[in-house]
Amino acid sequence: MHLPNPLYQGCNVGDLVISAITRGCERVAFISDDTRWTYRELGAKVSQVVQVLAARGLRRGDAVATLSANRPEAFLITAAAYLMGLRLTWMNPTSSEDDHAYILEDSGVTTLFFDPRSFADRTRVLQQRVPGVQRLMRFGDGFGPSDGLGDDLLAAAATHTPGPLVAQAEPDDVCVLIYTGGTTGRPKGVAHTHRVHVTMIMTEMADWDWPREIRFLALTPITHASGAMIMPVLLKSGTYAMTQGFTPEKFIRLVEQHRITATFLVPTMIYVLLDSPARAGADLSSLQLIIYGASPMSPARLTEGIRTLGPVFMQLYAQSEAPNTVTVLHQHEHDPINHPERLASCGTPCVGTQVRLLDDDGQEVAPGEVGEICVRGPLVMQGYWNKPEETAKALRHGWLYTGDMARRDADGFLYIVDRSKDMIISGGFNVYPREVEDALSQHPAVASAAVVGVPDAKWGEAVRALVVLRPGAAVHAEELIALVREKKGAVYAPKGIDFVDALPVTGLGKLDKKAIRARFWQGQDRAVH
């Protein structure tokens, strides 16, 4: 076996963690509620956690997971995993119990770290459902007795003396599995190597419009896009503030309190902020960067946001398979006066990211024609965990096929016009119709169901279901919505259900979702970026 020359081997994310901590010194790294850690304190805590995990036998390549609200303690596990070469899965806090159980089983997790304030009950159930999870460790105690559920990680860490940090991973080790929905109805684990995450972090640092002084506020789950922004903030010796749950009042209070200069918001949050009476008299003058993405954004509302909050907006376009840095629409490219059409664009390829619009045969489409956005380079995933067929389908002709269809204008800006996949993006979260349809079909009154995304002023797209009932059966829409919420989580719950006699089908007898969408999208542009 030919081994790469170590002279030319790249760094791993653990090396970047050490760099960030070394650079930061006494500057404030994290703020959350009553928590305030300097970089020096962060380094000490990471060292202590590494020692706890090593003492319990965790070694390079072992699989661990976190289930937590936005807390700095969750990042301690991320940092330790990067350093030790563990394979980490961030559990989406909004997912259902069934999905959490499946993810733990599929990824082979043996150690689960959890937030006892928010997820003690869920963890207790998962412990019973997933025998492979052999060890539970909690971030301190909850608001009540822990009932002996797992070991207290923070108490154990306090018994160790901080020492030097050492990165043990290799660049091509799998460092993270990110679970995203799939057409089969089960989540898919996107396998990212250290090389992928180093590429993502470096690209974020090089090609994004960061303020000189970064005080970043995260209100969306750090298991998603905002969490992928932690490392560039730390490498620039900035401060990362986090909390859970968004209201305009909370957002305004935290921006004013901490003089926040940068944040990530999904478009729904921006709409709510723009429409909130709480904004009257608020001092948001410190904001220099609002990163948005993960959901359709109305150009009209974007124009309103620029007029109200200033030229602070920057858009990212990416997907789990090529995280955070496929394209970018920079602040100066948000020009509603001279180039209003660009407010509907997802920008141009990030520096160093190779992007083409290809057809199914791997050939680049002619200028102005629609093709599938395809990506290649060190940003691209290793593949889907335990799913070789789906990996081969996504990675073909030497490219990652994203499933998003777009055209490119004469200046190189990309405009997403449709998806080849049926995925719905509602309020910044991915919703996969098949999973909703499967949940609905579990009800004894339901004969068949079809789910699509429909235009929604608040959510960008709203989940809507067409349901055919069994002969003689009856059920209230609220009952079906509650069923989906129980099975899949609140994000998947339809905002509306239409009861119909039959679903439209093509000449071949296949469900015709194009016809269904046309009922709701008539005369509207379903551009998504």
Write up this protein.
With 529 residues, the chain is α/β, with parallel strands linked by helices. The protein has three domains: 173 residues, Rossmann fold (3-Layer(aba) Sandwich); 223 residues, Rossmann fold, CATH 3.40.50; 98 residues, ANL, C-terminal domain (GMP Synthetase, Chain A, domain 3, 2-Layer Sandwich). Helices cover 30% and strands 26% of the residues. It has 15 helices and 27 strands. It has a nine-stranded mixed β-sheet with strand order 2-1-11-10-12-13-14-15-16, with helices on both faces. The radius of gyration is 23 Å and the shape is globular.
CA radius of gyration? 23 Å
- Assign the CATH class of the largest domain: Alpha Beta
Question: Count of helices?
Answer: 15
* Mean pLDDT across residues: 91
The CATH topology of the largest domain comes to Rossmann fold
**CATH homologous superfamily of the largest domain - what is it?**
ANL, N-terminal domain
Strand order of the largest sheet: 2-1-11-10-12-13-14-15-16
Give a short synopsis of this structure.
The protein has 529 residues and is an alpha/beta fold. The chain has 15 helices and 27 strands.
Write the layout of secondary structure elements.
Layout: H1 13-24, E1 28-32, E2 35-38, H2 39-55, E3 63-67, H3 72-84, E4 87-90, H4 97-107, E5 111-114, H5 116-129, E6 135-138, E7 151-152, H6 153-157, E8 174-180, E9 188-193, H7 194-207, E10 215-218, H8 230-235, E11 239-242, H9 248-258, E12 262-265, H10 267-275, E13 289-292, H11 299-309, E14 313-319, E15 322-329, E16 348-349, E17 354-358, E18 371-376, E19 383-384, H12 388-394, E20 395-396, E21 399-408, E22 414-419, E23 424-426, E24 429-431, H13 433-441, E25 446-456, E26 460-469, H14 477-488, E27 496-499, H15 513-521
Parallel strand pairs: 1-11, 3-4, 3-5, 4-8, 5-6, 6-7, 10-11, 10-12, 12-13, 13-14, 26-27
Antiparallel strand pairs: 1-2, 8-9, 9-19, 14-15, 15-16, 17-18, 18-21, 20-21, 21-22, 23-24, 25-26
Helix pairs in contact: 1-2, 1-3, 2-3, 13-14
